[in-house]
Amino acid sequence: MTIRLLLENTINQIAAGEVIERPASAVKELVENSIDAGAKNIDVVMVEGGRKLIRITDDGHGMSPDELALAVERHATSKLKEDDLSDIKTMGFRGEALPSIASVSRFTFKSRAAGSDQAWKIEIEGGKKGDVEPTALDCGSQVEVRDLFYSTPARLKFLKTDRTEFSQTLDVIKRLSMANPDIAFSLYDNERRAFQVSAAQGELLDSRIRRLGAILGAEFTENALPINAERELMKLTGYAGLPTYNRGNAQHQYLFVNGRPVKDKLLNGAVRGAYMDFLARNRHPVLALFLEVPTHMVDVNVHPAKAEVRFRESGVVRGLIVGALRHALSEAGHRASTSVSNAALGSFTPEAGRSTMPFHSGSGQQNFQMPPRLSGELSETSKSYYAPLSDNHSSFTPPMGRNEELERETSTSFETQQDLTQFPLGAARGQLHETYIVSQTENGIIIVDQHAAHERLVYERMKKHMTEGQVPRQALLLPEVVEIEEDAVARLMTRQEELSKLGLIFDAFGDGAIVVREVPALLGDTDIHGLIRDLADELAELNQALALKEKLEEVCSTMACHGSVRAGRRLATAEMNALLREMEATPHSGQCNHGRPTYVELKLGDVERLFGRR
């Protein structure tokens, strides 16, 4: 075959295959155009999962008829100044987005410029453009994409069910709305409104948490930690969930770079590294992080759909994310998620229409119905009736007579612990099944898992020794020679000093080899060859020696588990209070090393509701 130029429509269809993978891809490109146009209200309508119709309407600044005709040409843009691909400040700039979508659909673009009294439209069917004509439309733009992929049956055949395609679009809209809290979004599935958020007002951080709460739920806002950090012209903001507020997959991690939603391995790896010793490997945190990077330090043009980015200083980016998240988690102290307490209350609540304590009616039959809930007035009456007696009503005489010695002992013990209730975790009142500590606070009760709590305390002590460079080393009787690539040797040698602080002592051994002389004693009989190769690989990808730290922390976690207070051990009151005070002073003590909660808090008002007092 001789070399020839492809037809314009074929070129557009090839571009569509790169950029427009499914209806959600088309929606993303078009909504990003609306955002760049300064829209404050964006409405999206989909019919049959986007196969039959995608309609996007916005109130942006609109276009003139000449701009409208030019906008559907390939490589036409108003978003790229001086043809500088290193200075991209908009959501999108690719000129092939509109013609690519138009080449595989029946496409109608209407627009009315701000201040103009006339709207215009252009229609394109399968890549064949019509003339620009007058039409009726309010200020802004409206794009209709009908019969998507009708001209490319192969691509149409690989689309999923309508529900699946719509859910993909919903995820796109949610991510874009998180990044733009000042814009109102709505998404319709046929005639059903599936998603809507109004524009949030006020400071960025305040409006952002309100938008995140509207999308992720109030439970996220109750358990989210604010993130705000800067390093070398980069800024990281957002909110991250407590470790005890986690999910079974990473789909609830929302990451943005310069307002652009991305799914990037480097960023996901940084999040995983920050939560590494707080969560089990099959659990994932919930968070939304927004990274602002100077345009010359990030390349957003490495993926046709702009889903991935590349950083000039990837190590700095990773360090910023890991440092900011770990600092926020440390500031949270012993705090655990409210969802744990809510789940506990749900377990206590009796089922509707059933009582755990049957009582007999006059006919001799058992009646299992719960008594009706008290009205507000009766509830307050019963509350005052059941309230503890005041000091001037302390003349109650037990039916079996007084035991003055026992009263003095319990009175002294109670008065000694009275002030401890002002602490966050309260004063220890007892122990259940030699496993759980029950404490009283000023406005509720707390139940502590003594083994899980002490395991975290021991683990944090061991981590502190490790960070202070006190990691014990074990000299090898015979130094181990590990053969690896020359560039891997160079990477390891640049981090030799850092790795020595973690207990790994090695030197270069000719070309393409490392000789290991000492290893961390905590690792015991470890696979030195595998450890060195893993370190070299991770340094190549992330520029961080994670494997060694992870192995050390895994060993620390195991040792902490065996060295902690075991379930089944009876503790004295002083021991229980000492454990509570140390938990309050230790970061991350709200969860064990596997992300499970170490305590559950129940507010007094919630307990009273269980008994119908409120």
3D structure, described in words:
- Helix content is 38%, strand content 23%.
- Mean pLDDT is 79; it is low at 351-383, 388-403 and 409-415.
- The chain has 614 residues and is an alpha+beta fold.
- Helix 15 crosses helix 17.
> What value does the average pLDDT take?
79
The structural class is alpha+beta
- Strand elements, count: 27
Point out poorly predicted stretches: 351-383, 388-403, 409-415
Which band does the percent of strand residues land in? Answer: 15-25%
User: What general form does the structure show?
Assistant: globular
Largest sheet: 9 strands, mixed
Fraction of residues in H or I helices: 25-40%
Radius of gyration using CA atoms only:
32 Å
End-to-end CA span: 85 Å
Please report the number of helical segments. Answer: 20
SSE layout and pairing:
Blueprint: H1 8-19, H2 23-36, E1 41-47, E2 53-58, H3 65-71, H4 97-103, E3 106-112, E4 119-125, E5 128-129, E6 133-135, E7 140-146, H5 153-157, H6 162-179, E8 184-189, E9 192-197, H7 204-216, H8 218-222, E10 224-231, E11 234-241, E12 246-247, E13 253-257, E14 260-262, H9 265-274, E15 284-285, E16 287-292, E17 298-299, E18 310-311, H10 314-331, H11 338-348, E19 359-360, E20 366-367, H12 376-386, H13 404-418, E21 427-432, E22 436-441, E23 444-449, H14 450-467, E24 473-483, H15 486-494, H16 496-501, E25 505-508, E26 513-520, H17 528-542, H18 546-563, H19 573-585, E27 599-603, H20 604-610
Parallel strand pairs: 1-8, 13-16
Antiparallel strand pairs: 1-2, 2-7, 3-4, 3-7, 4-5, 4-6, 8-9, 10-11, 11-16, 12-15, 13-14, 17-18, 19-20, 21-22, 22-23, 23-27, 24-26, 25-26
